[in-house]
Write a structure and sequence with these properties.
Blueprint: E1 14-18, H1 23-34, E2 40-43, H2 54-57, E3 67-70, E4 73-76, H3 78-88, H4 99-135, H5 138-146, H6 152-162, H7 169-189, H8 203-213, H9 228-238, H10 241-244, H11 249-258, H12 262-271, H13 277-294, H14 330-333, E5 337-341, H15 346-357, E6 363-366, H16 377-380, E7 390-393, E8 396-399, H17 401-411, H18 422-436, H19 439-449, H20 463-481, H21 494-503, H22 521-529
Parallel strand pairs: 1-2, 5-6
Antiparallel strand pairs: 1-3, 3-4, 5-7, 7-8
């Protein structure tokens, strides 16, 4: 059989599983354009939960967009995709080759992901919920979701969005305050600078801009008076061809709506138990207008074409080496290490394990999460994301466990915990992204059962459904381990260490690791526990 053909402008067989209004998908589109790569698009309709369809979950078990197929290879999570593209197609690099600048780019990516944990619920509360409520009844919204998923957690989330119940009023105000603080940090970084890192355009701009641009959608306008440096930076990027051409029509419409005050009015009015005659009339007019623009939501949508699959038979990409830059100088390796730690944090624990794998010594500063020490002014000056761990290496400060782990693995010789080839490295990062992608379920469980915060914990759905979501991720992990002793390749990598520190904690969160249910996880856990580095 002849190998399947791609369009002449897509010789590498790239397929992007995309949604036009996703900032994560947009950063991949910008990256592809900046690198001069062609691709095919498979649209995933987030408004109908198509990202939760079993066929899509088989490609991306996190159930997010984007996903990228490169020939037969599948890569998910936007930052993993963009770094893979830079490794696989090293022309026109967007990640700096200089190691410390590269770390700074990746820390801005981690900072954006931390901000997104606040932006996402506010977006659903102030934009997605009102729009779904305006255009569909609850029964219609659930019927649309059921065409893609029967998962009780997905349906419970869809109902919560429709009912405008994602955030309580006090949570909404606190979330807004944190988003303003994050933007103030960005403005300080850009004071006197054209770019976030170094003296040139990098992946940091591509990663941060798409979601910052969307602040206006949630009624957080970025004005020159309050944010002069962010405003200047955004204006310069907005006209860049790759940014201008990837702004979707939906985002243009939302930008226009954000100037009218309509969305805040809509959210306030829909939450009212009783509405005036004028409010009811205005809602009726808006509902008709929205349904005409979006199509008749009462009618069943046309059948979705079968999900396009990665192409077999395409010449596989070369196993290019990851673009990691020169090895650090001995004087850099000799600098003292200080770990800002919390004993029960799985993210901090994985860094302790890595340090022992490298036979390194370090000092520890305890950051007591139970006493909110991670939110103190002293600690926020070290890690503005307010998370543990952080690492001080000489005068350098690194935040985010994934950034710290890759930095240490590159800086120090000894047992390597990341592969050197582009796809092997992407596979490790994807396993870590899968673990990180469950933060909506893991963080409240950790807060309740480890930190003891029974009265101030918010679940997207419920504690019971959160445990079921985690159990499905564990089933995916177990299936992978059926084919080998470790998650990637034939030796332990950071993917194994990261998941081990999470799974070893799960019984305390009420998620048992049943050997009958997960027969391949049990022996893997035993192998991991035999490593001297894991003993705390």
């Amino acid at each position: 059989m002849a190998a399947p053909r791609f369009a002449p402008d897509n010789p590498h067989g790239l397929i992007l599983y995309d949604h036009p209004s996703s900032p994560c998908a947009r950063r991949v589109r910008i990256t592809l354009l900046e690198k001069g790569l062609g691709w095919e698009t498979q649209l995933i309709d987030l408004s109908r939960l198509e990202q939760r369809d079993p066929a899509y979950l088989a490609l991306n078990p996190n159930g997010f967009v984007p996903t990228l197929a490169h020939g037969e290879r599948v890569i998910y999570e936007s930052n993993v995709i963009t770094e893979y593209l830079d490794d696989a197609f090293p022309e026109m690099p967007l990640y700096p080759r200089e190691p410390w600048q590269r770390v700074q780019v990746k820390m801005w990516q981690a900072a954006e992901l931390a901000m997104a944990k606040d932006y996402r619920p506010l977006m659903y509360q102030r934009v997605m919920g009102p729009m779904v409520h305006l255009t569909r009844s609850l029964d219609q919204a659930l019927a649309a979701a059921r065409r893609s998923t029967s998962d009780p957690a997905d349906l419970a989330w869809e109902e919560k969005v429709w009912r405008l119940a994602v955030l309580a009023p006090e949570d909404e105000a606190a979330t807004e305050a944190r988003l303003w603080q994050w933007l103030e940090r960005l403005d300080r970084q850009l004071d006197g600078r054209a770019f976030l890192v170094g003296e040139r355009f990098t992946q940091a701009e591509i990663s941060v801009f798409p979601r910052v641009m969307m602040y206006a959608f949630v009624n957080l306008p970025i004005t020159p008076a309050r944010f002069p440096h962010v405003t200047r930076w955004m204006a310069a990027l907005r006209d860049r061809p790759s940014f201008a051409s990837t702004l979707s029509s939906q985002d243009r419409q939302l930008l226009q709506l954000s100037k009218t005050g309509l969305l805040p009015w809509l959210g306030r009015t829909l939450r009212k138990p009783r509405r005036s005659l004028g409010e009811r009339l205005r809602l009726a007019v808006l509902r008709r207008m929205a349904r005409r623009r979006l199509g008749d939501t009462d009618a069943s949508p046309p059948p979705r074409p079968s999900l396009r699959q990665p192409r077999t038979g395409v010449i596989p990409p070369a196993d290019s080496a990851a673009q990691r830059g020169p090895a650090p100088a001995p004087e850099v390796q000799a600098l003292p290490l200080t770990l800002y730690d919390f004993a029960d944090s799985p993210h901090a624990r994985r860094i302790r394990i890595l340090l022992r794998e490298k036979s390194l010594t370090w000092q520890t500063v305890d950051v007591d999460l139970r006493r909110d020490a991670h939110q103190s002014a002293e600690y926020l000056a070290i890690n503005p994301n307010g998370e543990v761990p952080a690492l001080r290496h000489g005068e350098r400060i690194l935040c985010d466990s994934q950034v710290i782990a890759e930095y240490l693995d590159r800086t120090y010789p000894g047992n390597p915990l990341y592969p050197d080839d582009a796809f092997g490295l992407a596979r490790v990062r994807m396993w870590l992204a899968l673990e990180a992608g469950t933060h909506k379920e893991l963080r409240p469980l950790f807060a309740r059962h480890v930190l003891g915060r029974n009265g101030a914990v918010r679940f997207d759905t419920s504690e019971e459904l959160a445990r079921e979501i985690i159990a499905k991720k564990l089933a995916h992990l177990d299936a992978q381990l059926a084919g080998g002793a470790y998650l990637v390749g034939d030796c332990c990598t950071m993917a194994d260490i990261g998941w081990y520190t999470r799974i070893d904690l799960l019984p305390r969160l009420g998620v048992p690791i049943d050997a009958a249910r997960y027969p391949h996880i049990a022996p893997w856990l035993a192998r991991m526990r035999q490593r001297p580095s894991v003993a705390d």
